[in-house]
Amino acid sequence: MTETRPTDDATARARRQWDRMSAGYDRNARMEHWLIGDARARLCRRAAGRTLDVAVGTGLNLPHYPEGAAVTGVDLSGGMLAQARRRAAALDRPVELREADAQRLPFADASFDTVLCTLALCAIPDQAAAIGEMYRVLRPGGRLLLIDHVEYAHPPMRWLEPARARRGGRPVRRRPLRLAAERGFAVDRHRRLALGLVDEVVAHRPQHGG
Amino acid sequence: MSVKIESWLLDILACPQCKSPIRLDERELDGAADGGEPATAAELVCTDPACGLAYPIRDGIPVLLVDEARRPGTGAAAR
């Protein structure tokens, strides 16, 4: 029997934390709109075919997907998924939900036409592993859609990074754009939102590439 | 409660531990002697015999986390 690699402590801690926060999470929605405007809707509209929503959370993306997208949502937190299921039912929007770790996605290679991850990468302990998994489950030519907080590179926000890292117990975040490019994604479009604090990335997995 | 997963959704599932295909294992539980419909328990089981982790389905949502998986032949979680 192969030895199982247990989930690292940071991931286990994040799971408990998101379970606790799931009930009140949507109170952040107004703040979010002030930060990123309609970026969520703009990105979700580009989803097509078999679509994976990584860290679907309470399902805030669900209202924005086109009819044709067959959406699967994964999240580390069962509490979050319970909220997502309620939202999907209220919207009459079919969605498949799986409790899973973005760093170890439970899907075969090349399973999806679109992979989307909004405002969640920054909360994942090993962001490069998560991006690698997104690449793996995306078919060649398939599209990656990301919105995420960037590492605060300049003062005064730069000064908040050590406290944020301590609080979250997570490594300092990196630019989603750079992580995607390093893994081999071809970046089609990049925008900065929220005065440069948030990245919006549209990319695809090249037809040929490792 | 019977669990329904469309075949293509089952086909794309892979074990998060070893990435082998996964099958749905549904079995009747004992103790349905009261004449009611027999209760069933469903798990998603890794098809690689060397791994064989069994993942629970809770409230209809598959829990595909290695920490929550049961090792084959035991009731114990993998961790």
The end-to-end span of chain A amounts to: 29 Å
Question: What is the spatial order of strands in the main beta sheet of chain A?
Answer: 3-2-1-4-5-7-6
Residues in β-strands, percent of chain A = 15-25%
How many helix segments of chain B? Answer: 1
Low-confidence stretches of chain A: none
Secondary structural class of chain B: mainly beta
Strand order, sheet with most strands of chain B: 1-2-3-4
| Name of the CATH superfamily of chain A | Vaccinia Virus protein VP39
- Largest interface: which pair? A-B, 28 and 32 residues
C-alpha Rg of chain A, in Å? 16 Å
User: How much helix is in the residues of chain B?
Assistant: under 10%
Query: How many structurally independent domains of chain B?
Result: 1
Let me know the number of strands of chain A.
7
CATH topology of chain A: Rossmann fold
Pfam family, one (chain A): Methyltransf_11
InterPro entries (chain A): Methyltransf_11, Methyltransf_Superfamily, SAM-dependent_MTases_sf
Organism (chain A): Allonocardiopsis opalescens
Protein name (chain A): Phosphatidylethanolamine N-methyltransferase /phosphatidyl-N-methylethanolamine N-methyltransferase
Description:
The complex is a heterodimer of chains A (210) and B (79). Chain A has seven helices and seven strands. Chain A has 210 residues and is α/β, with parallel strands linked by helices. A seven-stranded mixed β-sheet of chain A has the order 3-2-1-4-5-7-6, sandwiched between helices. Chain B is mainly beta and 79 residues long. Chain B has one domain. Helices cover 8% and strands 27% of the residues of chain B. Chain B has a four-stranded antiparallel β-sheet with strand order 1-2-3-4, with no helix packed on it. The longest helix of chain B is centred in the N-terminal third of the chain and has 6 residues. At the A-B interface, helix 4 and strand 3 of A face helix 1 and strand 4 of B.
